[in-house]
Each structure stands twice: as C-alpha cells, then as structure tokens.
Design goal:
Length: about 280
C-alpha cells in the first residue's frame, strides 16, 4: 500500500490504524455493540439488505473493514462461508474472540483494504460486503473499487451500505446544544482529510487513552462512490437511500415501528441518512 500513496497520506492512514487499535477494546466492551450477545448481530442490517443479498448458504463472502465482525457473524449464521478483513490488529484479535464466544467459524485476516488482494491470496468471492462507517477512512475510492472488483468472482456481487454523505456533512457527532440539521462538513470529495481529535469514541465507555492518535476522514459524495465502481468495470444494479439509522444520531429521533431502527420525527425534513449500492461483476 505505501508505494501507492504519498508519505503524508500514509502517515494519516497509519494514525487511523493506531486510533482504531486504541478504540477497539472500548467498543468490544460497550453496550453500543453488545458483542456479548445482548444485541443480535442481525440488528445492524437495514431491512432491505437481506433481500438485496439473496440466499447466502454455500456462498463465499468477504467483509472488508469488518471491525468487531458483528455483521460477519450474521453472515456465517445465515450460511455463508465468511471471511472478515480489517487493518486493526486489535479489531482482528477481538473479532476472533467474539466469534469463538458465539461458536461461529469465521476466518479473520489483518490487512489494509488496499492490500486485500495480496492478503487473501487466490481467494475470490461471491459477495464483497462493505458496511457502515468504512469509506470515510479511505483516501482513494478508485483504488478501493479496483480491489473490490478484483476480489469478486465473475457474476459476483459487491454490496456497500454506508452512512449517507448528507449525514456525514451534518458533522461527526451533534453536541447536546447543537441538534439542528445544519451542514458543517463537506458533502463532496476533494479537499483532503479532516482531522477529528475527540476524547471519546462514538460508543459508551471510558475515554480513549491520552496518547491516542487523532483520526482522519475523507469525504466521498454518492456520485464518487458510484462512478468509482463503474470505472472498475462493475455494473450498478441497485441504489437505495433511506431515512433509517440503527442508533439515534439525534436525540429527537423516534423508533420506526416496522424495523425498530431510528428516524427523524415526522415534523422534520425527510433526508437520506443511509444508502446502499449493489454492483455486479460481469459473468
């Protein structure tokens, strides 16, 4: 990976790796993730995801940037032969422990996503899955999309479910006295990494260690994501946008009666908070 990026970008990506190493033990013990089984792995899936993915028994699937492997566990339980990949050594270690605790057989690999083809060797997959909160840590989506396409077998499916750039442009986390829907960050890509140096991570639990590295995020508009996939030779088959989130990003959000997820109240503007893209590799 290092040879593909300038030295400053490599430095920021290494800082992100250190930051995720520091926050992973907090996440593993948090009520937010409920990795001990208090929150079912299926909770993290939008209602439409299982329909888009189709039947999983016997299909080989790789979950890129899998973190604790919460979704990866659900895939294995639904019959897929699942592999999880993450750049954080702490994440891979905890994901293995969590899978063992739940009696699920999953192969976890430590690797930067840009090195995934090398790390996974000759393995090619029926499904490449990329889930919520992943793309903002990638400086180059064209290289990412090329990796996704290379990992797919002919006829395979790439499925990306991500926080909508409208949501991310509202800021990383609303302050108690700043709950308005105001744009604070870029929607579109192009102005480089944004540094976040928060004392706490996004889950419950203690503060990050005092020497924890900052974290850096890159904006990616929806058009950039779709175009990167098309330029990598993939065929877009579906694009969804939804106002649902798996947790209440804003204090005034209310439960959706059908999914159990969260949405803004009826009096608020309806805006997309999450999107999904399905893309296939030609047979």
């Amino acid at each position: 990976m290092d040879s593909e990026f300038d030295s400053r970008t490599v430095e920021l990506m290494r800082a992100n790796e250190r930051n995720w190493d520091a926050r992973t033990p907090i996440h593993a013990a948090s009520q937010f993730y409920g990795a001990d089984g208090t929150i079912p792995a299926e909770w993290w899936f939008a209602p439409f995801e299982w329909d888009d993915l189709g039947a999983l028994p016997g299909r080989e699937l790789v979950h890129l940037q899998c973190h604790l492997g919460t979704e990866t566990i659900a895939f294995a339980r639904h019959g897929a032969r699942a592999v999880g990949l993450d750049f954080s050594g702490q994440a891979v270690e905890h994901a293995r422990r969590i899978a063992e605790h739940h009696g699920v057989d999953i192969d976890y690999v430590r690797s930067d996503v840009y090195d995934a083809v090398t790390a996974l060797g000759a393995n090619r997959f029926d499904i490449v899955y990329i889930a919520k909160g992943s793309l903002c840590y990638l400086p180059d989506l064209d290289r990412w999309a090329a990796v996704v396409a290379e990992l797919l077998r002919p006829g395979g499916l790439a499925y990306i479910v991500e926080f909508h750039p409208v949501l991310t442009s509202l800021g990383p986390k609303p302050e108690p006295d700043r709950q308005e829907l105001l744009l604070r960050n870029d929607y579109l890509e192009g102005r480089g990494a944004v540094e976040h140096n928060s004392v706490h991570t996004y889950t419950d639990g203690p503060a990050l260690p005092a020497d924890a590295s900052p974290v850096y995020e890159w904006a990616h508009g929806l058009g950039e994501v779709v175009t990167a996939l098309i330029d990598a030779g993939l065929i877009i088959t579906r694009l969804r946008e939804t106002e649902l989130l798996p947790w209440p990003r804003f204090e005034r959000m209310v439960r959706d009666k059908d999914s159990g997820w969260w949405r803004l109240p009826p009096a608020d503007a309806r805006i997309p908070l999450l999107y999904a893209v399905a893309a296939t590799k030609a047979p």
